[in-house]
Amino acid sequence: MNDKQLLRDTKPNDDQTKAKLENHGKVEAGDVAQRSDHQSQLDGPGALRPTRLYKRRWMIVLLFSSYSLSNSFQWIQYGIISNIFMKFYKVDAFTIDWMSMIYMLTYIPFIFPVTWLLDKKGLRVIALMATALNCAGTWIKVASVKPNLFAVTFLGQFCCSFAQVFILGMPSRIASVWFGSKEVSTACSIGVFGNQLGIAIGFLVPPMLVPNVDDMDQLAHHISIMFYITAGVATFLFIVVIFVFQEQPKLPPTQAQATARSIPPEQYSYTASIRRLLHNRPFILLIITYGLNTGCFYAVSTLLNRMIIYHYPGEEVNAGKIGLTIVIAGMVGSLICGIWLDRTKTYKQTTLAVYFMSLVGMIVYAATLSLGHLWVVFITAGALGFFMTGYLPLGFEFAVELTYPESEGTSSGLLNCSAQVFGIIFTICQGKIIDNFGTLAGNIFLCVFLLIGTIMTGKTFLTVNIKLYIDMFLFYSPHPERNIFH
């Protein structure tokens, strides 16, 4: 257990309370949760509260992953066959790029009201809004399969991008509300896993369902099939969420959640929480570094079709498979990182190592893309995805460590807001660089910013260590008012 968790879960020098907490135990699913006679006698701030782990927690996180999958699939379904949609709707490449970038742009202004709504209304309302908007967007797209209806398909994509605001920052919140302290990183990784699996399917399926044919009627038929399948899945998930998704378990999974539930709502201020987070220097550094890394991933994903077609003409299907390789490798990386964090709690060291390897992966990918061997691109793209996508749950979990006891939805929302801003900037800039100077220059552009992010991550590591030692000194000092750091 690291120092941060020790400060979070126990009182200093209170071995008796710690022993009681360990002996209290969590009631496993299927058992009856009862307070012991001795526990019921504990009063005051040190009182232990009943906790329980429910089997239903796995259904909740898997359901979340499923509708996150449905939404993230649509983020990339235009970009991975951008040349085909350019031909069908008679628009340019930059316009099709906006079908992906609208996901990023919509997130920026709406994340703050959505996070406020999460804190006021809870997870169930957020889940219903997400699936309802996602479902509506898919059916609008079904009605847009005509060359003169690009505005309609853009409206459908906007609805889906709005739904993403209710999805992207939720994994850490669901993990903390439903899962035990030894499971939260794994649960968060499963939540991110659904999003990444959706992107993987978005890379793979559209090139298979929508071949590059010249007959516009036949092309419209193929696009229509893809949109109907997407709408059917989204509608099914919306119905399931209505009947299955719960706000929270009856009993909290951890003492930290039990304490959070005991805080009266009127004592919580969303704006005050934002101000505290923006004065947290290590968290600000994490916001920037997370945005740089994830923004690079968004740019590579959005422009992947253009980069592959640039060097390997007519390989739309293989472009999708390379994207699939990136994300599948990233999902493996996400799960491995989540399990590793649950076992070791080495947030700072793991985050720095994975970030550095993302930089190495980007350099190798940039250097090998133009060699003329697709099998080499598959390997280097997979290595890039393993580390770059594997970093996503690390960022969420590290943010929770840096900002406890602030709301997980607020901290993850700020992280994702940064990612969207950098994603738009990097996608536009890299796209223009590719058009004017080629793919190598565009990828070097991303490598420079990943190098900056790696250096800043190392600085975050040092800042967190210094802050932790100061906090521990203040926490354990018998006379904090005499402390020069006070």
Automatic annotation (TrEMBL):
<dbReference type="Pfam" id="PF07690">
    <property type="entry name" value="MFS_1"/>
</dbReference>
<dbReference type="GO" id="GO:0006783">
    <property type="term" value="P:heme biosynthetic process"/>
</dbReference>
<dbReference type="GO" id="GO:0020037">
    <property type="term" value="F:heme binding"/>
</dbReference>
<feature type="transmembrane region" description="Helical">
    <location>
        <begin position="149"/>
        <end position="172"/>
    </location>
</feature>
<keyword id="KW-0675">Receptor</keyword>
<dbReference type="InterPro" id="IPR036259">
    <property type="entry name" value="MFS_trans_sf"/>
</dbReference>
<feature type="transmembrane region" description="Helical">
    <location>
        <begin position="374"/>
        <end position="394"/>
    </location>
</feature>
<feature type="transmembrane region" description="Helical">
    <location>
        <begin position="225"/>
        <end position="245"/>
    </location>
</feature>
<dbReference type="GO" id="GO:0031966">
    <property type="term" value="C:mitochondrial membrane"/>
</dbReference>
<feature type="transmembrane region" description="Helical">
    <location>
        <begin position="125"/>
        <end position="143"/>
    </location>
</feature>
<dbReference type="GO" id="GO:0005789">
    <property type="term" value="C:endoplasmic reticulum membrane"/>
</dbReference>
<keyword id="KW-1133">Transmembrane helix</keyword>
<feature type="transmembrane region" description="Helical">
    <location>
        <begin position="283"/>
        <end position="301"/>
    </location>
</feature>
<dbReference type="InterPro" id="IPR011701">
    <property type="entry name" value="MFS"/>
</dbReference>
<feature type="transmembrane region" description="Helical">
    <location>
        <begin position="440"/>
        <end position="462"/>
    </location>
</feature>
<feature type="transmembrane region" description="Helical">
    <location>
        <begin position="414"/>
        <end position="434"/>
    </location>
</feature>
<feature type="transmembrane region" description="Helical">
    <location>
        <begin position="184"/>
        <end position="205"/>
    </location>
</feature>
<dbReference type="InterPro" id="IPR049680">
    <property type="entry name" value="FLVCR1-2_SLC49-like"/>
</dbReference>
<keyword id="KW-0496">Mitochondrion</keyword>
<feature type="transmembrane region" description="Helical">
    <location>
        <begin position="321"/>
        <end position="340"/>
    </location>
</feature>
<keyword id="KW-0597">Phosphoprotein</keyword>
<feature type="transmembrane region" description="Helical">
    <location>
        <begin position="352"/>
        <end position="368"/>
    </location>
</feature>
<keyword id="KW-0812">Transmembrane</keyword>
<feature type="transmembrane region" description="Helical">
    <location>
        <begin position="98"/>
        <end position="118"/>
    </location>
</feature>
<keyword id="KW-1003">Cell membrane</keyword>
<feature type="domain" description="Major facilitator superfamily (MFS) profile">
    <location>
        <begin position="58"/>
        <end position="483"/>
    </location>
</feature>
<keyword id="KW-0256">Endoplasmic reticulum</keyword>
<dbReference type="GO" id="GO:0015232">
    <property type="term" value="F:heme transmembrane transporter activity"/>
</dbReference>
<dbReference type="GO" id="GO:0005886">
    <property type="term" value="C:plasma membrane"/>
</dbReference>
<keyword id="KW-0472">Membrane</keyword>
<feature type="region of interest" description="Disordered">
    <location>
        <begin position="1"/>
        <end position="23"/>
    </location>
</feature>
<comment type="similarity">
    <text>Belongs to the major facilitator superfamily. Feline leukemia virus subgroup C receptor (TC 2.A.1.28.1) family.</text>
</comment>
<keyword id="KW-0325">Glycoprotein</keyword>
<dbReference type="InterPro" id="IPR020846">
    <property type="entry name" value="MFS_dom"/>
</dbReference>
<dbReference type="GO" id="GO:0097037">
    <property type="term" value="P:heme export"/>
</dbReference>
<keyword id="KW-0813">Transport</keyword>
<dbReference type="GO" id="GO:0043249">
    <property type="term" value="P:erythrocyte maturation"/>
</dbReference>
<protein>
    <recommendedName>
        <fullName>Choline/ethanolamine transporter FLVCR1</fullName>
    </recommendedName>
</protein>
<feature type="transmembrane region" description="Helical">
    <location>
        <begin position="58"/>
        <end position="78"/>
    </location>
</feature>
<comment type="function">
    <text>Uniporter that mediates the transport of extracellular choline and ethanolamine into cells, thereby playing a key role in phospholipid biosynthesis. Choline and ethanolamine are the precursors of phosphatidylcholine and phosphatidylethanolamine, respectively, the two most abundant phospholipids. Transport is not coupled with proton transport and is exclusively driven by the choline (or ethanolamine) gradient across the plasma membrane. Also acts as a heme b transporter that mediates heme efflux from the cytoplasm to the extracellular compartment.</text>
</comment>
<keyword id="KW-0265">Erythrocyte maturation</keyword>
